[in-house]
C-alpha cells in the first residue's frame, strides 16, 4: 500500500492533479444514478429489508440475474417477518437457479435472527449487523451506509477496481484488500454516506469497467493515477489464480415410464446442502468410472445403465467438476428407494435443483429418441417429450 500511495502521491505532485473529491462523484451520481428495483428514490428512506435482500442476492451475481428473483421474493415475502415464517425448503426452491446456495440458507437464518433477536427490525449499527447469519464485512457496510446512512464504505469487486485504479495500487489482490478498504474509507464524505456508497458501486458497474473503462465520462478522471499513466486495465493487480484440481464423479438419471425422474435430497451440511439432485457417486480426484455403476440406485435387478457421451462440466469456487451421466428407463411401477422420490418432468421447476443438476438433466434428456421405454402404454414418454418437458420445466442453465 505504501508503494502504491507513493506512486499516486508522486504523480499528483508531478502532474499537479487533485485527489478524488467525493463531491464530484456525488454530483455525477445525482445525474446518472441507476434506477434499480431495490433502490430508494431521491427523498425516500431506504427499506433495510430490501437493501439486505438485494445485497445478499447480488453477491457473486449480476443485477440482471437478480432482478426477477428479487421481485418474486418480495411479492411472496414482503417483510422480514414473513420471510422468517417461511420454510427453508420454500426459500431454497425460490432461490433455485441463483447459485451459491449457502446464501439462501443464511438468508432464512438471518430473517429468523432479526425477528428473534431484534423484534423484526434490522439493527442500525455495523457490529450488530455483522453478527447476523450470512452478513459479512461487505454486507454490513452496505446496509449501514445505504439503509441507515452511517459512515461506511462497502468494498466489493467493482469498488476494488475503482479504488485500485484511482491510487494505482501495485499490491496484488487478495493481499491488497485491507489497503484498498482503507483507501476507499479515506474518500468518504461527511454527509450522504449511503449515496456515496451507491455512487461508487454505479461508477464501478457502468464507467470504470474491467475492460475499456469510459474514463472520459468519469467524474474522477482528473484525479485518477491509472488514467494519468494510461494503464487502467492492468488494475487491480491480481495474484495468478490457482484453480483447484478437477474432481470427477457420476450422475444417474432414472426415467420412469410415466415421465418422472428420480431425485433425492443432498445432506444438510456441505456443498449444495439440502438441495435436490439425481443420485450419484462421490466427487473425487481418483474417481474410477469403470466402477461407477456399483453406486447406481438399486431400482431393479435387470436394469442396465447407459453411459452418455461427453461429460457435464461445472466450476465451483474451489474446484472444477466433471460428471459422467448414466441413464436408464424404468417401468412406471418402479418404486423409489429410501430417501428418494419420483418427480414429474413438468414439476422440476418447483424443485430446489442447483444449476449443476439442471445441466445434468438437460444433458440426459436432450437425447435422440433411443430411450427404450416400456411399450405401448399411456405412460410411455419419448425422448422428444422428455426434451420438451425438460426445456419447459427448467430455466436455462448458467
Ligand atoms: S478515470 Fe477511468 S480508470 Fe480512473 S476511476 Fe475513472 S473510469 Fe476508472
SS field, number of helical segments: 15
Span between termini: 37 Å
Radius of gyration: 25 Å
Counted beta strands: 7
For the largest beta-sheet, the strand count, sense and barrel status come to: 7 strands, mixed
Taken in chain order, the helices and strands follow as: HHHHHHHHHHHHHEEEEEEEHH
Mean pLDDT: 86
Uncertain segments: 1-17, 367-398
CATH architecture of the largest domain: Orthogonal Bundle
Shape: globular
How many domains? 2
* CATH homology group of the largest domain: Hypothetical protein, domain 2
Structure class: alpha+beta
User: Could you say what the CATH topology of the largest domain is called?
Assistant: Endonuclease III, domain 1
Amino acid at each position: 500500500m505504501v508503494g502504491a500511495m507513493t506512486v499516486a502521491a508522486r504523480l499528483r505532485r508531478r502532474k499537479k492533479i487533485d485527489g478524488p473529491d467525493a463531491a464530484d462523484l456525488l454530483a455525477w451520481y445525482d445525474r446518472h444514478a441507476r434506477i434499480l428495483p431495490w433502490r430508494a428514490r431521491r427523498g425516500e428512506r431506504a427499506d433495510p429489508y430490501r437493501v439486505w435482500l438485494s445485497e445478499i442476492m447480488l453477491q457473486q451475481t449480476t443485477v440482471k440475474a437478480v432482478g426477477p428473483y428479487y421481485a418474486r421474493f418480495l411479492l411472496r415475502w414482503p417483510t422480514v417477518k414473513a420471510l422468517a415464517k417461511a420454510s427453508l425448503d420454500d426459500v431454497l426452491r425460490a432461490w433455485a437457479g441463483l447459485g451459491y446456495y449457502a446464501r439462501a440458507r443464511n438468508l432464512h437464518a438471518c430473517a429468523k435472527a432479526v425477528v428473534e433477536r431484534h423484534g423484526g427490525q434490522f439493527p442500525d449499527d455495523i457490529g450488530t449487523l455483522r453478527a447476523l447469519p450470512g452478513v459479512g464485512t461487505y454486507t454490513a457496510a452496505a446496509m449501514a451506509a445505504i439503509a441507515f446512512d452511517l459512515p461506511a464504505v462497502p468494498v466489493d469487486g467493482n469498488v476494488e477496481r475503482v479504488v485500485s485504479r484511482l491510487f494505482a495500487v501495485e499490491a496484488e489482490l487478495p493481499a491488497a484488500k485491507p489497503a484498498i478498504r482503507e483507501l476507499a474509507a479515506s474518500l468518504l464524505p461527511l454527509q450522504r454516506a449511503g449515496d456515496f456508497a451507491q455512487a461508487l458501486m454505479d461508477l464501478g458497474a457502468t464507467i470504470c469497467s474491467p475492460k475499456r473503462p469510459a474514463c472520459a465520462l468519469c467524474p474522477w478522471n482528473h484525479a485518477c493515477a491509472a488514467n494519468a499513466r494510461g494503464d487502467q486495465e492492468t488494475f487491480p493487480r491480481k495474484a495468478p489464480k490457482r484453480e483447484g484440481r478437477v474432481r470427477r464423479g457420476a450422475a444417474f438419471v432414472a426415467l420412469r415410464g410415466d415421465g418422472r425422474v428420480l431425485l433425492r435430497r443432498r445432506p444438510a451440511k456441505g456443498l449444495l446442502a439440502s438441495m435436490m439432485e439425481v443420485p450419484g457417486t462421490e466427487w473425487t480426484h481418483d474417481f474410477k468410472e469403470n466402477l461407477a455403476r456399483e453406486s447406481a440406485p438399486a431400482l431393479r435387478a435387470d436394469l442396465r445403465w447407459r453411459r452418455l457421451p461427453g461429460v457435464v462440466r461445472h466450476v465451483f469456487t474451489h474446484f472444477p467438476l466433471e460428471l459422467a451421466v448414466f441413464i436408464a428407463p424404468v417401468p412406471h411401477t418402479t418404486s423409489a428407494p429410501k430417501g428418494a422420490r419420483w418427480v414429474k418432468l413438468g414439476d422440476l421447476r418447483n424443485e430446489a435443483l442447483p444449476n449443476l443438476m439442471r445441466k445434468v438433466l438437460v444433458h440426459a434428456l436432450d437425447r435422440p429418441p433411443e430411450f427404450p421405454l416400456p411399450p405401448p402404454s399411456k405412460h410411455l414418454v419419448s425422448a422428444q417429450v422428455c426434451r420438451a418437458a425438460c426445456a419447459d420445466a427448467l430455466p436455462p442453465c448458467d
